[in-house]
Amino acid sequence: MAKILVIDDEKTIRDAIRDILEYEGYEIDEAKDGQQGLEMVTSGKYDIALCDIKMPKLDGLELLQKAREEGVTTQFVMVSAFGNVENAVEATKRGAFDFITKPPDLNRLLVTVRNAIEKSNDTEVIKTLKKRVYKINEIVGESPLIEKVKDTIDKVAPTDARILITGPNGSGKEMVAKQIHEKSNRHKRPLIEVNCAAIPSELIESELFGHEKGAFTSAIKQRLGKFELADNGTLFLDEIGDMSLSAQAKVLRALQENKITRVGGEKEIKINVRIIAATNKDLKKEIAAGNFREDLYHRLNVIPIYVPPLSERREDIPLLAEKFLQDIAEEYGDQLKTFQPAAIEHLKGLPWTGNVRELRNVVERLVIMCGQEITVDEVKLYAGLGL
After folding, report:
1. DSSP designation for 223
2. Whether residue 226 has pLDDT greater than 60
3. Distance between CA 68 and CA 379 in Å, rounded?
4. Which of 105, 276, 116 is nearest to 196 (CA)?
5. Contacts of 305 (CB under 8 A, 6+ apart)
6. Is 339 helix (H, G, I), strand (E, B) or coil?
7. 331 pLDDT exceeds 50?
8. Nearest-10 Cα torsion for 98, 100, 106, 111
9. What pLDDT digit, counting tens, does each position of 278-323 carry?
């Protein structure tokens, strides 16, 4: 049952709305002024707040703004006897779902409430999914090396400093980038990922900067590049060591001037993007070999983060294996399995050339192939398949 808060200084209006909505099966609470409404909406869990604009102590628009600043996700429907365009526009700017006039038309009120409830449900689903994604991308471990990584993330995430993440394949560089974005002030804006190694060199510039219609044979329409899509958010350049020199020059210019130009275009487009780059290569060796620009390296390497291979943090393997057991059980909708202590010890001694990614794959294989308690003999039998 949806829970609705009616905020209005007129008792007759509150009573009328309560009668209508309770008849429809909704649970109703009331607040007699803006201050009481703010206290209730920030401390309670409401799907919708039907909120008057002109009220004593705190008007509805101020209430809405303060509620949003407090992180309240309740859908606000603003109600006012003054149904002018200015109020409606201002309410929308501050995050209101809709705006209706007094006295509210019965059909319009019920339709608006139903639509707001659907939006509220969608918001809750998105929040749940975000929590799940955050859990999936959680950096697990208590070793000194991984604690250093987590500490660095906490320090640099709230800034806009550029970050260069290094480490071998499968060690978790992408996970570090996602954690930085989630903990940054840009977390409500997109994190756009580009795998520089997976895009042919002749297409990388179009991928990054976009192109105008007719810029080349297959450019049948205008396309926005990753820099524009990441505006006010974060752009993650994975495997940047594989980027062509010509693309590196344009990326350097974009970082220097905060402007880009689409392929085939002349107009300069302002951008506000935080750059996180990652590579499994030794960029200093690539610079010496003439494969990577030194000036770009220094632009990117404001904050270096080294993600160690699993072989350098074996004490984290029991925690990682336990997390993967839980994640896989949730994915498969199956009962949680366990490892024998000897099985965990054997896992700790394996070489793990594929790092955390390989460990995850091995745990999934063991969950599929083994019984409720995974034994050391089963680990010896099945873990070796990927090593």
Report:
1. B
2. yes
3. 51
4. 276
5. 149, 152, 153, 163, 164, 165, 166, 176
6. strand
7. yes
8. -10
9. 999 999 999 999 999 999 999 999 999 999 999 999 999 999 999 9
Name the helix (H) or strand (E) containing 260.
strand 259-261
Burial 205-224 (b: 16+ CB within 10 A, else e): bbbbbbbbeebeeebeeebe
- Residue 368: helix, strand or coil by DSSP? helix
User: Is the separation of the CB atoms in 238 and 280 below 8 Å?
Assistant: no
Q: What's the gap between Cα 384 and its chain centre?
A: 35
Q: Which residue bears the tokens 């350097």?
A: 252
Q: Tell me, yes or no, if the pTM score tops 0.85.
A: no
All domains of the chain, ordered by start, with CATH?
Answer: 3-133 (3.40.50.2300), 139-308 (3.40.50.300), 311-386 (1.10.8.60)
Greatest pairwise CA separation for the chain in angstroms = 80
Q: What is the 3-state secondary structure (H, E, C) of 127-172?
A: HHHHHHHHHHCCCCCCCHHHHHHHHHHHHHCCCCCCEEEECCCCCC
Please count the residues of the chain: 387
Query: Rounded CA gap, 37 and 52, in Å?
Result: 10
In angstroms, the first-to-last Cα distance of the chain is 53
Is residue 225 within 8 A of residue 237, CB to CB? The reply is: no
What digits encode the pLDDT tens for the residues 175-212?
Answer: 999 999 999 999 888 999 999 999 888 889 999 999 99
What is the distance between the alpha carbons of residues 286 and 249, in angstroms, rounded to a whole number? 15
Q: Burial level of 85, CB count in 10 A (0-12/13-18/19+)?
A: exposed
Q: Which helix (H) or strand (E) holds 5?
A: strand 3-7
Query: Which tokens in the block code for residue 134?
Result: 């955050």
Residue 6 in tokens: 């009616």
Residues 217-226 have a mean pLDDT of 87
Answer yes or no: are the C-beta atoms of 337 and 370 closer than 8 Å: yes
Query: What residue type is 124 in one-letter code?
Result: E
Dist. CA 92–CA 96, nearest whole Å: 5
Alpha helices (runs of H) in the chain, residue ranges in sequence order = 11-23, 34-43, 60-69, 85-93, 106-136, 144-156, 173-182, 204-209, 226-229, 245-257, 283-288, 294-300, 317-332, 341-349, 355-369, 376-382
Output the six-digit token pair for 82.
Answer: 């003054």
